[in-house]
Structure formats: C-alpha cells, structure tokens
Recover the amino acids of this structure.
C-alpha cells in the first residue's frame, strides 16, 4: 500500500514529510544518545531481516494465492515502539530508492501509514493492553491479530485520505475506501496469523528476545523544541492544504464558494497593481485558461469553438512531441560527447 | 525463487553503478538530494490535467543519465516495474471523470484521460528521479547527506547497518528458501506451519548475529559513528549544480515550453494540415 509521488500534491507531501521527520526525531530522542552504539546495530540488522522475510512466501490455505510478512507489528513486539519505527522507516526508504516503490516525497506518507500505526498505536494501545506484561499464548495471539488488522486498516485508510486530499486521482472517496479497507482486511488477517505464529515460536525457542522494554526518557531530554517546531509547521501546512484543496480538487471550487458566500462572482480584481500583475502571471502560466468547457454551453457556441479547440489540442500535441524529441536529442548528443570521459 | 536472487542482484547493480567517477558522481550528495527533491516538487505541483508541460521535465533525467553514463534501459526497466500500481489507480480517472475536455471532430476526449496520462507521466518522472539519485550517489552517501541535512544520527547509523547486512540477510533468506523448496512437493510444505518455522529460525539467527556484530563493533571501539570514505564538500561546483537546476525547474514550471514550441509551428498547422480536418 505504498502511496506514490504521482498521486500526491506538494502540500500533502511536504506536510507528511514534516510529520514523519518529526516522529523520527522524537523516536531517536527517546532511544537516547548513550544507547546509540548499543542499539544501532541491532535495529539496523533487524530492519534488513524484514527484506529477507518479505522475500519468503507461504501459501494461504483455500485461496491458492500466497502471502508474505509486512513486519510492522513483528518489529514493534521485538524492538519496542521507537526502535521499530526507525527500522520500518529505513525499510521504506530503501524500497523507495531501489525499487521505486512510492517515491521520495511520498516517503513521509508511507512512513506514517506503515510505521506510525503499528509502532505508536497498535503496539502500546492494542498489543500491550490485551497481552499484558506476562502473556499466555492465546492472549498474545489475539493481541497480535488485533494489532495487525488495526495497523493495516488504519494505514489503508490514510492512503485513501492522502489521495483524496491531494486530488490527483479522481477515485471517489467512498469507493476507494471500500476497496482499500476490504483488501487490507484480508492482508491484515494473513499478516496477523503469520506474526502470531512467529512470535509464539520465538517465545518457545528464544524467550529472551521478547523481554525488551524501552527505557523511559527523562522529561528534560524530551525534544520539546523539535516537537513544537514540527507541530507549528504541520498546522501551517494543514491550513494551507485545506485552502488549496478547495481550490484544486475542482478548478473552480474556490470561485464557486466565493460566489455562494457573497452572492456574486469572484471579487473585482481589476484595481490594484498586484492584482493585475498576478492576473497577467496567471494568464501566462495557466495551460487551460479559465477552463471554458462549460457543460451548459449551447450547441451552437460549441460548434463555433470546436475548431479552435481542436487546433489548440493539435498544437499542444505537436508542441509536446517536439519538446520530447528535443530533450532526447539533447540527451543523446550529451552522452555522445561526454561518454568518453565517463568512468 | 528467481525473484529473491534477482532482487539481490538488482540492489547490488545499482550500488555498483553508484561507484563510478563521473562528474555527477563526484558531486556532494547533499546537492544531488536537494535537486532531486526540487525536481519532484516541481513535477507534482502542476494541475491534475496537465500533460504537455510535464514533458520538458524529461530534460533532467536525460541530462543526468547522459553525464553519469548510467544504463538508460536498466533504469527504464526498473521504472516500468513500478508503473502497474499507478495504472491500476489512474485508470479509474477516465471512468469517473468523463466530462469532455477536448474535442477533435467527433472524437470527445474525457478530462479523465488527461489526468490519467498526467499520473503516468508524473510516475515515470518521479520514480526515475529516485532511481537516478541512488544510481549516481549510492545509499551510504545519501545516508550521510541526510545526516548533514539534520536527520538524527541514530537513524542514519542504523540505516547504514541495515544496508551493510541487507545483502548478507537476503542471501541467507535465499538459501533458506531454496532449502525449503527442495524439501517440499508441489504446494505441500509451503503452508504456514513450515513458513513460521523457517522465519522463526531465520529471525533468531539474525538476532544472534546482530548481537555478535554489536559486541564486535564495541570491542573495536565503535562509538556510534561511521567515517565516510568520500569527503563531503559543498563547494562552487555544488552551488552551481543546485542553483542552475533549481532555476531550470522554476523556468519550466512557469513558462509553457510546448505552447511556445507549437506557436512556432502555428503557421504550418493553420495553412494546410489543420484545414483538412
């Protein structure tokens, strides 16, 4: 359920990156400086284990399909919330860089969707609450099952929210959510069964691995400044995001709402130097000025503008193709002339 | 089974490509990271129906691929692997958003097709940018750049550990997986019971290995820092690289190049070709 750069608006991307960076800073702070050299190798090697585990499949009985581990809840149970959040974040970073899963700006979203829920919600509030401090096998399996299903559901739902807030995909919220939640319910159950089995195995074979409890950090070391900075940044971006959502999800959304509120069309923009400047800028920069494809347009008027539109489209296509050819020619020539120097 | 080994080989190949000495490879990793983020931001900042104006942005991957002598086909293949998900999400746009945006004769082209094409183009550009970044920088240098840009040290150090042991563990996963395959018959032996045992053993071995590594590192006076082999230096070259690319992205974002190009062609289109419609 990797969110992709291509489906993301800059504001959503930046806001989620700020949020995830803040959480990485917070988790790193909670692990603490003195633990760095002791914990870093363990966290790192366990993160690389996730890759090895994701490459091994098992058949799901009755369906003929196969599944593999996501690893979020397993790492949270083994490493505790802070370290597991760091480990999952780095797995997602490698997936973005080497497999182009998601994207660089979507990292913030993906780290939040797949790392935040298992580490900071499912582990403390579901797993620990149900399993308790010295869990028996049955309780622990139920706890892990619930934590896995919740993590996947919450993650899938945030993918839907992020896509809808970005407004690049036209999928309606309800349909997209229905598909995502039901698919990830099945994935969550499979993940829960596998994780519960693995944890039960470890509890029998090597119980000391499960005796891990993160040391609480003294309050004065808590990174208040970072947290405050991130919070204010997120609030600002969220406010900006809400505004831009209205104006970008439908190109005329803001104009429409202004009209509704004031009872007339968009405010008079003819006076004032700034307005004229920006209006000019906008006219220059907008590819489809004004979106004059009104559904209520009369057939006659449509016929009149048809030819000019077709012309506009042809020229856009031609312009695009020429640009593309120019770019590739430039690249080819560059390679030809610099190829000898490389290496 | 082939997927495990091919994935490991793929990781190694990108890493080996990153160890070349071209002018792009030698730049400071921070400069390349900043430019890549600027590029992605510029590409995704367009309106959802925008197609033509995304095309000039191919100049960035084209130039970097040429200067860094990365194999273009390899990068294209890797982008193609990442695309099906976008196609699956994007294909709903023409189905949902069928208001006519363009009309050519009797052919009505729905707005959804434009946003679909836009999603695919965005996907190609952004996925390509990420792959090229790692191909010209390498994972270790990206991590060190992130640290210099303010990401906490423990996160970066554990990422470097992860990367070092990724290859070891993926190979171990492959061996374990092959062993399981040789001992099973058809789908028998591929169920969850053997899976849990295989993964359980693998995780215990990994944990013990991690502890041995940690002890060995501490015994060799590891104090939580890696020393980079390549020097990080944000000099004139880097300033030039960053400022010129960011300027280009700003220009491409605000000047409509395809429109300018087509206005050069307008007389031709108006005279013969277009009138025949």
């Amino acid at each position: 359920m990797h969110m992709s750069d291509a489906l993301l608006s800059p504001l959503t991307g930046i806001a989620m990156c700020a949020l995830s960076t803040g959480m990485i800073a917070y988790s790193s702070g909670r692990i603490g400086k003195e633990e760095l050299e002791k914990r870093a190798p363990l966290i790192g090697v366990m993160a690389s284990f996730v890759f090895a585990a994701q490459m091994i499949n098992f058949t799901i009985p009755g369906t003929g399909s196969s599944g593999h581990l996501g690893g979020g809840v397993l790492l949270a149970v083994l490493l505790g919330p802070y370290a597991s959040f760091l480990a999952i974040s780095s797995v997602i970073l490698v997936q973005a860089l080497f497999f182009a899963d998601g994207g660089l700006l979507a990292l913030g979203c993906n780290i939040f969707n797949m790392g935040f829920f298992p580490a900071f919600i499912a582990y403390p509030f579901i797993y620990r609450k149900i399993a308790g401090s010295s869990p028996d096998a049955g309780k622990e399996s139920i706890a892990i099952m619930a934590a896995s299903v919740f993590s996947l559901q919450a993650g899938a739902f945030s993918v839907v929210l992020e896509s809808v807030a970005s407004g690049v995909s036209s999928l309606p919220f309800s349909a997209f959510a229905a598909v995502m939640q039901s698919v990830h319910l099945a994935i969550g159950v499979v993940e829960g069964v596998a994780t519960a089995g693995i944890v039960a195995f470890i509890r029998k074979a090597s119980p000391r691995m499960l005796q891990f409890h993160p040391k609480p950090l003294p309050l004065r070391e808590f990174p208040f400044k970072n947290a405050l900075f991130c919070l204010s940044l997120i609030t600002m971006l969220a406010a900006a995001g809400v505004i831009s959502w209205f104006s970008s999800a439908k190109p005329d959304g803001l104009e429409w709402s202004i009209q509704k509120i004031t009872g007339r069309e968009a405010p008079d923009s003819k006076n004032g130097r700034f307005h004229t400047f920006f209006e000019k800028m906008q006219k220059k920069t907008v590819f489809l000025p004004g979106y004059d494809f009104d559904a209520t347009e009369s057939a006659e008027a449509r016929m009149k503008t048809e030819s000019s539109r077709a012309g506009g489209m042809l020229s856009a296509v031609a312009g695009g193709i020429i640009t593309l050819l120019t770019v590739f020619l430039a690249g080819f020539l560059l390679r030809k002339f610099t190829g000898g120097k490389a290496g | 089974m082939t997927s495990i080994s091919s994935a490991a080989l793929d990781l190694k190949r990108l890493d080996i490509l990153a160890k070349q000495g071209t002018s792009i490879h030698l730049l400071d990793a921070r400069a390349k990271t900043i430019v890549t983020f600027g590029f992605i931001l510029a590409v995704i900042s367009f309106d959802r129906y925008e197609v033509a104006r995304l095309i000039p942005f191919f100049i960035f991957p084209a130039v970097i691929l040429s200067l860094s002598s990365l194999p273009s086909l390899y990068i294209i293949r890797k982008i193609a692997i990442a695309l099906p998900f976008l196609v699956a999400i994007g294909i709903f746009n023409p189905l949902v958003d069928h208001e006519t945006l363009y009309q050519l004769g009797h052919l009505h082209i729905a707005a959804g097709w434009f946003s679909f094409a836009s999603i695919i183009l965005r996907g190609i550009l952004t996925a390509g940018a990420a792959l090229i970044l790692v191909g010209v920088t390498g994972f270790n240098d990206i991590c060190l750049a992130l640290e210099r840009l303010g990401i906490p040290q423990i996160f970066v150090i554990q990422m470097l550990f992860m990367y070092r042991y990724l290859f070891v563990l993926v190979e171990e996963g492959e061996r374990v997986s092959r062993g399981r395959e040789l001992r099973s018959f058809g789908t028998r032996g591929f169920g969850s019971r053997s899976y849990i045992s295989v993964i359980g053993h693998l995780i215990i071995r990994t944990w013990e290995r991690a502890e041995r590594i940690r002890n060995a590192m501490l015994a060799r006076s590891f104090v939580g820092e890696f020393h980079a082999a390549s020097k990080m230096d944000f000099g004139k070259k880097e300033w030039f690289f960053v400022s010129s690319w960011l300027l280009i992205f700003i220009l491409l974002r605000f000047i409509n190049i395809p429109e300018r190009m087509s206005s050069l062609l307008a007389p031709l289109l108006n005279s013969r070709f277009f009138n025949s419609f």
Observations:
- The longest strand of chain B covers residues 100-104.
- Chain B touches chain A through 139 residues (CB under 8 Å).
- DSSP finds eleven helices and two strands in chain B.
- The two ends of chain B are 55 Å apart (CA to CA).
